[in-house]
Each structure stands twice: as structure tokens, then as C-alpha cells.
Design a protein that fits this description.
The structure is a single chain. The protein is of the alpha/beta class. It has a single domain, classed as NAD(P)-binding Rossmann-like Domain (Rossmann fold, 3-Layer(aba) Sandwich), CATH 3.40.50. The chain has nine helices and six strands, in the order αβαβααβαβαβαααβ. It has helices at 2-5, 22-33, 45-57, 72-86, 112-134, 157-177, 197-201, 203-211, 221-232, and strands at 13-17, 37-41, 91-94, 140-144, 182-188, 243-246. It has a six-stranded parallel sheet with strand order 2-1-3-4-5-6, sandwiched between helices. Strand 4, helix 6 (157-177) and strand 5 (182-188) form a beta-alpha-beta unit. Helix 2 packs parallel to helix 3 (45-57) and helix 4 packs parallel to helix 5. The radius of gyration is 17 Å and the shape is globular. The relative contact order is 0.15. Bound molecules: NADP nicotinamide-adenine-dinucleotide phosphate.
Amino acid sequence: MAVLDAFDCSGRTAVVTGASRGIGRAIALSLAEAGADVVPAARSEESLETVVGEIEDRGGDSLFQPTDVTDEADVETLFERVGEEMGSPDVLVNNAGINPGDALGTPEAVAMEGYDRTLDVNLRGAFLCARIAGEGSVESVVNVASVGGLVGLPRQHPYVASKHGLVGITKSMAIDWAPEVRVNAVAPGYVATELTKEAMENEGLKESLLSRTPLERFADPEEIAAPVVFLASDAASYVTGACLGVDGGWTAR
Ligand SMILES: NC(=O)c1ccc[n+]([C@@H]2O[C@H](COP(=O)([O-])OP(=O)(O)OC[C@H]3O[C@@H](n4cnc5c(N)ncnc54)[C@H](OP(=O)(O)O)[C@@H]3O)[C@@H](O)[C@H]2O)c1
């Protein structure tokens, strides 16, 4: 069926940042299942090595290159190695993200160090990866934003600033790089991962988050990965500058 062929990522090379666990890992594995060769990039060597193996088990070529997206030399080395060994990446997924404890709270309680670190990883890191990928033959960039990139979230000011910024540069890059490169974002609602572990363990908070979610449950990482594969693939060939909510209806309210 031609429509299904459009989702096929065979022959493409993808780099997925923050793919040592959680949503990034699910995106990397889903892209491999869709036929792509996939390079996961993150700092934790042991889990990264496991993900490289999982990609290869799915038939994708991969390579092991630990990378900190805040470190320009690291990011340059990553793209150089991918270019030399697998060909310049066609797809970049900017997924690496943090929301550390010292960046949470009312504005006066936020530690400025936590603010800077959050912006550094979530926004500057994504910008850096995109501009280095943009020097090559990248065709599709997908940024993993958040509902916090579309609406306010209490006590998450640096995170919300970084994700609104990410949605913003998704649009401006889409304009600058058209028609050669498509740039889109997804904005997930709450997903059960390491990032949200503490919130999920707080029964009161968990109930309150669920009561705001029309689908009445949190997402599995694979439910974020599938829309990312769609945006990365030719199935989204006329989609650019868009931010797709994948939030169980959170932003419909
Ligand atoms: N979970 C949710 O409910 C939710 C909702 C909306 C949006 N999101 C977004 O989805 C993305 C993934 O979140 P997640 O829930 O899967 O979080 P997670 O389980 O904490 O995973 C975060 C990933 O980012 C990587 N990372 C962190 N700092 C990095 C750095 N400096 N350089 C390279 N990689 C780095 C981590 O790997 P290392 O520690 O090994 O470097 C890890 O692979 C984030 O951008 C997050 O904001 C999540």
C-alpha cells in the first residue's frame, strides 16, 4: 500500500539525542523498526551501548558515540563520526531534555544554576545539534518539546521557557531551511519515564495530572515515538514548522 510506504525510513540515517532511556530510546527503536539506521546519543555509556544493540537487533546499523549535547566538541565529533561511517544524517531528533530539582518551584525559589542548565540542555543543545546537522544533508528535524512548550506549567519555569523556545526555533528554522529541510516538533503530555518518576510517586500530584488529561492515563514512550516517526518520514512531506500535541487531550482544555 503506497500510504504505508511513505512511513518507510529505509535507507535513512537518523541521530536521536537523549536516547539512552525513556522516550528517546523508544524513538530510536521505532525508527529502526521503520527501516532507518539509527545513532543514539547521550552520556550514559552502559545504557547507550544497550540501545545500540537493540537497534542492531531490529536490523538497523548503529554506532556507539557517547555525547553531551551541551558540549560543542562532543556534538561535532558525533556528526563527524556518523558522516564518515554511516553517511551524513538525513534525520535528527532532538530529544535530550532535563527538568532538574533545582529548577523547580516558584520563580523566587529557582536556582539560577538550575535555570541555566535546563536551558543549556533543552534549548541550546537542540539548537547546536540542528545547526551542525544542517551543515550536512539533513532532511527532517523533529524536536521533542512538551505541553510546557505550548501552555504554562506551575513551578516549572526554566523547563517551560526552554520548551517554548524549542517550539519557537522549530518555526523559525522551518522557514529558514525550507524547502530543503522540514523542521517540526511534538509536544508530549505526561509519559511515565525517569523524568516524571518523582511526580508519579506523589499520589496527589498524579491524580491532579490525570484529572487534567481527557484520555485519563499517561502515555507510553512508544506513543510519542510513533508520531515522531510520522514527522520524520515522507508521510509528513508537506508538514513543516508544526508542533503536534501528543498529550491525551491536555491542551484541548
Ligand atoms: N516524560 C514526560 O512526561 C515528558 C513530557 C513531555 C516532554 N518530555 C520530553 O521528552 C524528552 C525525553 O524525556 P524522558 O521522559 O524520556 O526523560 P528521561 O527518561 O530522563 O531521558 C532523558 C534523556 O536525555 C538524555 N540527556 C540528558 N542530558 C543530556 C545531555 N546533556 N546530553 C545528552 N543527552 C542528555 C539522558 O541521557 P544521559 O543521562 O545518559 O545523558 C536520557 O537519555 C525530554 O526532552 C523531555 O523534556 C518528556
